[in-house]
Amino acid sequence: NLVLNEKKLQEVDSLWKEFETPEKANKMNVIVMPDFGPLISILQDKLNLSCIHSPMVTELMRGIRSQIEGLITGLPSREMAAMCLGLAHSLSRYKLKFSPDKVDTMIIQAISLLDDLDKELNNYIMRCREWYGWHFPELGKIITDNLTYCKCVRKVGDRSNFAASDVSDILPEEIEEDVKAAAEISMGTEVSEEDINNIIHLCDQVIEISEYRTQLYDYLKNRMMAIAPNLTVMVGELVGARLIAHAGSLLNLAKHPASTVQLLGAEKALFRALKTKRDTPKFGLIYHASLVGQTNTKNKGKISRMLAAKTALTIRYDALGENTNAEMGAENRLKVETRLRLLEERGIRRISGTGKALARTDKYQNKSEVKIFDPSGDSTLPAVSKKRKIQEVEEQDTEVSVKAKKFKAEMKDRSGCELLPGFVSYPCLQQVLAVRTFPFCPSLCCCVLEYQSVVMLVLYLFILS
Fold first, then answer.
1. Single pTM value for the model
2. What Gene Ontology biological process does one annotation of this record name (predicted)?
3. Tens digit of pLDDT for each residue in 204-222?
């Protein structure tokens, strides 16, 4: 930019005032030239002009663009608008490296529509089975496939038509015979022709939605192979599309680290685990990948972590790379499959014991303990142990034995006869024996045999009598 009046450029904050109107802009003595590099130095020597390139020049160019119609004569406004629009599009494509072939927005809309179609299709099929089940309930148990069920109902209609209808193009021969036999002895209710027509119309809707879903899945598969071929090879088109939709775009997904890609879709469980100080989840949307699904439960965490690391590399290669082949994705998938096979063989070796002893490394487990307040510590009473010591128990036993010996000696002195071995004093029998049986020997009433010695007591009383 060659400027004759350099004093104006020094006033950067007020430079825009010089271009408020076309009249003020025409008063500015400005010569605008493209930056030709070495040519600028030649022009400076020949014309004795100084070249200035600074933020002040940027403000000057902005003012010139705002009044370009007044400065250039004979320029129609329509052509000026088309030129500005084309320039804006060119700059946007250049800055964002925009390619019309790589549109991840179409993938986001396609996977969202695919999920919505699955939900609606399940609702329609459930309604169709329940509705036609009132008329022919046995058909739902014989035909398990939903699309085949709807095609069969649409072709036959009333169950009485199954005997004369040919559904060999829909059902195998064995199932066709079972359906015809069940239609003759069906316990379903009779329905009108209008009800059958509505059911058939619902079956048409189910079949049309199923066909459209198949077309949409093929479209999504082709789009994923065009936009993110390496990601599609690694985790599949459905999981890859859900990852892109969850992140917002392929470029946003490429900015995420591998740990975020691994937990993408499980944010709610992650923050709940962090809040409650429990174990965090190991996988999110990547759990539905085929490599994670074919792994046993013990190795799912390891494989998902390795798969997320390789997937993050493939995402960045697809988003920022220039090549459109899927060689990198195939190589990384082969590495993950090799690692998976190695983990499975290691488990088999440990079970069989035929392989070499491998180094055992203890798995780190984060033991998060939640401490709860113990209200028993608030008590001010002294804690007394409920258990007695051995010395106290022995002292108590000796006291009991001394008391028993004293009691036996007193009874011997009173009655003049010894207590029989195996007898114990029993108060309830004492009164009976003393009053009715032996009034002349009351000391005998205190001597009652245990439960096993009733016969000995009877013989002893007979001898005394």
1. 0.55
2. ribosome biogenesis
3. 999 999 999 999 999 999 9
Question: Which amino acid would we find at residue 240?
Answer: G
Q: In degrees, to the nearest 5, what angle opens at C-alpha 248 toward C-alphas 89 and 219?
A: 80
Q: Can you read off the two tokens belonging to residue 123?
A: 């609702």
Tell me the C-alpha distance between 205 and 145, whole Å: 16
Return the bridge partners of 51, or none: 2
Q: How high is the pLDDT of residue 61?
A: 72
DSSP class of 419? P
Task: List Cβ neighbours of 253 (8 Å cut-off, separation of 6 or more).
Answer: 243, 244, 247, 261, 315, 319
| Both tokens assigned to 295 | 């792994």
Residue 14 to residues 8, 20, 63: CA-CA distances in angstroms? Answer: 9, 11, 11
The answer to whether 283 and 262 are in contact (CB under 8 A) is yes
Structure token digits, residue 453: 């010695």
**Domain limits of the chain?**
2-96, 104-218, 228-350, 414-465
pLDDT digits (tens, 9 = 90+) for 108-166: 999 999 999 999 999 999 999 999 999 999 999 999 999 999 999 999 988 888 888 88
Handedness of CA 222, 228, 229, 232 (dihedral sign): negative
Amino acid 90: pLDDT: 82
Q: What is the phi-psi region of residue 360: left when phi exceeds 0, alpha when psi lies from -120 to 50, beta otherwise?
A: beta
Q: Alpha-carbon Rg of the chain, whole angstroms?
A: 48
d(CA 440, CA 443): 9
Q: Which fold has domain 228-350?
A: Serum Albumin; Chain A, Domain 1 (1.10.246)
The hierarchical CATH code for the domain 104-218 is: 1.10.287.4070
